[in-house]
Structure formats: structure tokens, C-alpha cells
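Pipeline run #58 for the internal structure catalog. This entry was flagged by the ingest filter as a single-chain record with no existing model, so it goes straight to prediction. Upstream metadata was stripped on purpose; only the residue string is passed forward. Reviewer on rotation: M.T. Logging verbosity set to normal.
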Amino acid sequence: MSDLINLLSDLIKINSVNPDLVPNGAGEAEIARYIADWGTAVGLDVIVQEVAEGRPNVILIARGSGGGKSLMLNAHTDIVGVSEMDAPFTPVIQDGLLFGRGAYDMKGSLAACMMAVKQASQMDLAGDVILSAVVDEEFASIGTQAILKEWERWSADAVIVTEPTELDISIAHKGFVWLEVDVFGKAAHGSRPTLGIDAIAKMGKVLIKIDELDQTLRANPSHRLLQSGSLHASTITGGEDISMYPAHCKLVIERRTISGETPDSVQDEIQAILDDIAETDPNFKASVNVTLSRSPFGVDTDEPIVQLLQEKAEGNLKRDVPLIGTTFWMDAALFSEHGIPTVVLGPHGEGAHAKVEWVDLASVQQCVDIYTAVIAEFCKNAF
């Protein structure tokens, strides 16, 4: 496993903090160069896809002889911030765990993908094996969106997104909708209550209703794996001066969604709350709009890639491997929306976005073995 450990250690040493998350973040250019150089050195086809200035995807391809099914492995190269971490880019191994920013989310998976594609190049396969090492998953997913815009270049028949799943298989995850609610009052001097309308106090009515809606959603689960959607108040701003009635208050809401829930239906939920309040309060004026949304993900259990991944994972791990749902959003939803059969499996660890982050090295090697076994079966034969 020394080659895998060395590769993962090299990836950890590279600062690839997402610049859209952290001002002046290093970005993905350096890690992209490393992956591209590594791919060239081991004999893979290398494509560098510039997504934004200084932010390239790298696509590594083990070419098949032709006529077979092609499989894409997907991993992201960006990481979140490191402000409270001690030596985030110095990999440390202790008791079989490798510590460092991105070890778990998701350079462990990236290293496993790289080793699996390298092994695929040494097999006699009919189909191509493709690694899309993408930028910006932690913010707006412009990397995977760029992969999909040029899908005819890769045309994989299935995708394994390799986000960490503790070696279980995720076949569903939640989506999200971000909304802004603006409540409008009337500015006046604090000593003249008959002239002012307090927008912050009016927003309090919205907060109560949002909490009630969240409790209702979670009390009525309807999804076998994901249970229910949810929502919470994320940030609130308003007011200008201690001696003034505030004329405006803004609330930002995050609504986590399951299948069947759309940005329109979520906006309608919040609009209904605003309308109900306005019916009993003639001084209540508010609006709501959606600022960003991402769809939930789901794949049928009878998809061949799901069944094959489960078979090979159980054979490697010598245990039942459950099909699970995941609460957090992943790029899997983007592939699925494009009509591509997609499933998720990655290593065991802890500390995504936390001060201490680690990945279990044995599980990273198991990912290599599982991905390789799936590749050998999925891409072996011509149609």
C-alpha cells in the first residue's frame, strides 16, 4: 500500500482551498498540475479542462480497445478552509489513519481513483475508464457542470461518485433550496411608534411559522432512506440604528429537499406562510425568492452499476453492504439529472469541514480494490 500512501500524502501537501469559499484560497491549479503530471507518467491519456481562470479539471483516461462500456470515477480536488487547523497540509499517519485537510473529503477517494485508473490501463478492457478530477464541488460545482457540458467527449455509461460513505453504497441524497425572505417595515424615530413599523419584529412571525413547518415536515417522513425534508433559518440581518424603527429585515433560509420537492414547491411553501401572516396583519409586507437550488439524487436499485458495485463491495469486504441514503448534497445529482446511472461509494473517516480530519488508510485501499473489480467486470466486453 506504500504507493497509495505516498500518492495520498502528496495530495494532502497541496493547498487546494476553494477560493470561492475562502478569500484568496489557493484554488485547484497546483493539484491539477500534479494529477496531470502523474497521469502522464503512468501512461494515461490526460485532458486538462479549464473551467475558470486558474481552476482546471483534469480528466485521466485508460483507453479500452473499443466497443465496450465505459465507466467514470468522479472526485473533487477542492477543499474547505483550514483556519482553525494545526498543520493542515502536513500528512500524519497514526494507527492506520492519515490526518490532514482533505484526507476524508475527498483526497483519499481521489487517490483511490487514480490508482484504480492506473490499474485499468494494465487490463485488457474494451471500454474506457475515466477519472474526472473536478474543481469547486464545495461551492457551486462548476467542475462537474463543465464535465457534463462536454459529455460527448467522455460518454461514460455509468458514474461512481467517490465521496466518503464509510464503504456503504449511497443511492440517494437530499437536495437543497436557498431562499431569501425580505420583510419591509417603515423607518421612524424610536420615540414615535405611531409612525414606525418594525420589520424585525414582523420577521419574528415568519420565524415562528418556519419552525412549525420544519417540525411538520420531520414528523411526516415519506422517503424510505432520506425520511423527510427540513428547513432552518440560516442568517438574519436588519436595522440601522438603536433609536430607529427598522425599515427592512432579511432572512436567509436553507430548505433540504427529497424527491418530489422542487424549488417552485418550496417557494410556494414560504409564500403561503407570508400570505397567512398578511391576512391577519395589514402592516405585514414581505417577499420571497430562490437564490440557489440543487436537486435531490436517487438511482434505482436495479440499475446494473448499483448491483455490480454492491456485488464487488460485498465480495471484497466480506460483509453485507447496505444501500443507504445520505443527508448531504453531492455532484451525483448533476450526473443523475443528465440521465447517467450514478452511484456513490467512498472510504471511512471523519472530520469533513472540521478541525481534525482523517481517513482510514485500509478503507482507501479497499476502495481501490472495489473500483478495480467493478472496472474489470463493467468494461471488459465489447457490446
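catalog note: The chain has two domains: 2-173+297-378, 175-294.
catalog note: The mean pLDDT is 97.
status: ready for reviewer M.T.
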